[in-house]
């Protein structure tokens, strides 16, 4: 049998008036590269330029009229001051505590609010509402509620015969008290992320596990938990960045007190700036930037690899 081939019709030439970039296709078009230019200018002016300027001024003793280059002197002084080192440690503790609690509570609330419970939509709104409230407003409100003598929390605890602690006046628990308020305010966002992650899991997996006789805990451990890992990765990253950079809630509730026991790097930076130590405060900004970068970048890569492995 003789083979036959069908010739493809020739491609008609592009009209004479059509732009040259369009005739040679999107890959060779010069327009997309130009579209990046406005964003690149804005990014460079708002982020890159101030960042490099901060690195330079952290090496100087400066005010608004002059600057003197002193090398690493600001960084040496930063880590020699006990109060500044305390703020550095508190930053790590605050970020770790708030991140862990938001992940655990967010996951628990996400599972609860995706189950068949009465008033599920209303409860979702209630959980998310604190996210919408001003951080300063939350700080002022909880400062009043946690007052050791007139605060509502200690008054309620006193009804059962328990003497409430000085939530914001006891150096041992002041930072933890602020961390709990931060969790109360931010857990709603973590819950919403987990809800989105859980409802995206195909129901066939859960139903198949139930048919095989898996208990509720086994379905959670073997189906919900691993398949909601992208949500966990997002919550961990956002919570850790927010915890390491936290300032407004701490300043509204304790101003770093009592003493320096609840200071974090951001509040230390603000205090140094208020005192006129601009170079030292700029060095603190650089330290904060490096800490956030050194913690978040490797963690994000590890979480991404873990997500791919799952």
- Compute the separation of the termini in Å: 54 Å
Proportion of beta-strand residues: under 5%
Give Rg in angstroms.
27 Å
For the report, how would you describe the main beta sheet?
A: 2 strands, antiparallel
How many strands?
2
Number of helices, counting only DSSP H or I runs of 4 residues or more: 14
**Within the largest sheet, what's the order of strands?**
1-2
Summarize the helix and strand pattern as letters: HHEEHHHHHHHHHHHH
Principal-axis shape equals globular
Average pLDDT rating = 84
The poorly predicted ranges are 1-8, 20-26
Structural class: mainly alpha
Residue share in helix: 55-70%
Word description of this protein:
The structure is a single chain. The protein has about 300 residues and is mainly α. It contains 14 helices and 2 strands, in the order H-H-E-E-H-H-H-H-H-H-H-H-H-H-H-H. A two-stranded antiparallel ribbon has the order 1-2. A hairpin with a 4-residue loop joins strand 1 (about 60) and strand 2. Helix 2 (about 30-55) crosses helix 14 (about 280-310) and helix 11 (about 230-245) packs antiparallel against helix 14 (about 280-310). The chain is globular.
